[in-house]
């Protein structure tokens, strides 16, 4: 981060976007870190555990498109505030009435998807303040709110031991309320907010092939990140017999690694180009997932492999969103929603497929191998498209490298 970046945008808004994103992501994936205790209480099967942690991911994915439209019509600040109120109310209701069945867990997961849709608010809120040459760094910092998933893994299992897992849902509303207050004070809409469009016009971007490429690329990088963040507590418990608290600590280490390097990925993409950065990250992520799939002998060996995978996926997230604003600056609201939606769908697929893989084959191997194959397919697609990108819209980017 240089002096030019510090002068280029609006730092209070950037901080507010990060904090809002961070705490929203904390509660978005909270069923994963609580999954061991919830599964014991409700007697869930491996497939049900996979679906439990995957449901908030899918709901958040679908709601990101809704938020992408709302951001352009209501502007980012108001959209974010309304979503935060809905999530706080939902958590308090779940705490007050209790969760007593698998169906109620799924219903809560759908509600938590509203928190996952914060992605489509925080990134446009920050992005619209910064010029093209600083998009990677700005969106990397805002997107480092992914680290909220680590907070859930770090604290939720321990709090569940102390107070019971249902009480954790009520406790989570406290930092959310504090964050909402800070957000309302610091966040400011950019004067560069584009005017809202007719609803049908938002679908026109899907006629552009580049939109589909970005959606696929992010479904692998972010899908891998959030899918693992949601599943690893259960994985370490099932595979290596770690208790819920220790499994949560292992998960937190992996998620911290992936979330904290997202700004590094964005800054690296600003320096050497998003395409080159993504190429390296896909190769590294695929290799790490293949290593994990063989069933490493110790939890510590698995931790090392997962950290490597999360580092690659986290940096890849930053690289994708260094590229998106260069290609779709005027449509950044709807593109953030679309790209974020497919990222969440990728996470839903990974989390749910791991559960079904375990139930059907007795092993997680198939789930990891298929996702490694998706990373390799993304690498092949990026290799095929990069020449056209660099000679068309990439050549017109002012001060930015793709």
Outline the fold blueprint.
Layout (H helix, E strand, L loop, with lengths): L2 H6 L2 H18 L6 H8 L3 H29 L1 H22 L4 H15 L2 H9 L7 H9 L4 H16 L1 H22 L22 H32 L3 H17 L1 H11 L1 H20 L5 H29 L4 H30 L3 H27 L11
Helix pairs in contact: 2-6, 2-7, 2-8, 2-9, 2-10, 4-5, 4-6, 4-7, 4-11, 4-16, 5-6, 5-7, 5-10, 7-8, 7-16, 8-13, 8-15, 9-10, 9-12, 11-12, 11-15, 11-16, 11-17, 12-15, 13-14, 13-15, 14-15, 14-17, 16-17
Gist of the model:
The protein has helices at 3-8, 11-28, 35-42, 46-74, 76-97, 102-116, 119-127, 135-143, 148-163, 165-186, 209-240, 244-260, 262-272, 274-293, 299-327, 332-361, 365-391.
Number of helices: 17
Oligomer: single chain
Determine the fraction of residues in helical runs and give it as a percent range: over 70%
Count of domain modules = 1
- Overall radius of gyration: 20 Å
Q: What would you call the structural class?
A: mainly alpha
**Fraction of residues in β-strands:** under 5%
Quick one: how many beta strands? 0
CATH level 1 name? Mainly Alpha
Mean pLDDT: 85
Taken from the alpha-carbon principal axes, the silhouette is globular
Query: What is the distance, rounded to the nearest whole angstrom, between the alpha carbons of the first and last residues?
Result: 18 Å
H/E topology pattern: HHHHHHHHHHHHHHHHH
By CATH, the superfamily comes out as MFS general substrate transporter like domains
Report the major sheet. Answer: none
Q: Tell me the CATH topology.
A: Growth Hormone, Chain: A
Which CATH architecture would you pick? Up-down Bundle
Indicate the low-confidence ranges by residue numbers.
none
GO biological process, one term: nitrate assimilation
Pfam families: MFS_1
Keywords: Membrane, Nitrate assimilation, Plasmid, Transmembrane, Transmembrane helix
GO molecular function, one term: nitrate transmembrane transporter activity
């Amino acid at each position: 981060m240089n002096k030019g970046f510090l002068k280029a945008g609006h730092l209070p808004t950037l901080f507010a976007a990060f904090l809002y994103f961070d705490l929203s992501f904390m509660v978005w994936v909270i069923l994963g870190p609580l999954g061991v205790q919830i599964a014991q209480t409700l007697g869930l099967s491996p497939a049900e555990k996979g679906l439990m942690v995957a449901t908030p991911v899918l709901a958040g994915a679908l709601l990101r498109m809704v938020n992408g439209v709302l951001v352009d019509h209501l502007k980012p600040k108001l959209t974010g505030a309304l979503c935060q109120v809905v999530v706080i109310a939902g958590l308090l209701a779940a705490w007050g009435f209790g969760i007593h069945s698998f169906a109620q867990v799924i219903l809560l997961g759908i509600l938590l998807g509203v928190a996952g849709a914060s992605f489509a608010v925080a990134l446009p809120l920050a992005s619209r303040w910064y010029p093209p040459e600083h998009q990677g760094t700005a969106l990397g910092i805002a997107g480092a709110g992914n680290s909220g998933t680590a907070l859930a893994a770090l604290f939720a299992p321990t709090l569940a031991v102390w107070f019971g897992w249902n009480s954790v849902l009520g406790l989570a509303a406290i930092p959310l309320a504090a964050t909402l207050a800070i957000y309302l004070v610091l966040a400011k809409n950019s004067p560069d907010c584009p005017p809202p469009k007719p609803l049908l016009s938002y679908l026109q971007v899907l006629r552009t092939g580049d939109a589909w490429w970005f959606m696929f690329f992010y479904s692998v990088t972010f899908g891998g990140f959030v899918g693992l963040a949601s599943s690893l507590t259960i994985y370490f418990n099932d595979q290596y017999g770690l208790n819920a608290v220790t499994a949560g600590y292992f998960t937190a280490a992996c998620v911290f690694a992936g979330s904290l390097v997202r700004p590094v990925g964005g800054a690296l993409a600003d320096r050497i180009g998003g395409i080159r950065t993504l190429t390296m990250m896909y190769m590294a992520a695929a290799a790490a997932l293949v290593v994990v799939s063989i069933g490493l002998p110790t939890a510590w060996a698995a931790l090392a492999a997962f950290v490597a995978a999360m580092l690659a996926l986290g940096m890849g997230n930053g690289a994708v969103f260094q590229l998106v604003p260069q290609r779709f600056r005027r449509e950044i609201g709807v593109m953030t929603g679309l790209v974020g939606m497919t990222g969440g769908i990728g996470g839903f697929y990974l989390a749910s497929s791991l559960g079904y893989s375990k139930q059907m084959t007795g092993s997680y191997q198939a789930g990891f191998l298929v996702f490694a194959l998706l990373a390799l397919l993304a690498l092949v697609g990026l290799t095929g498209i990069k020449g056209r990108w660099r000679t068309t819209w990439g050549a017109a980017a002012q001060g930015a490298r793709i």
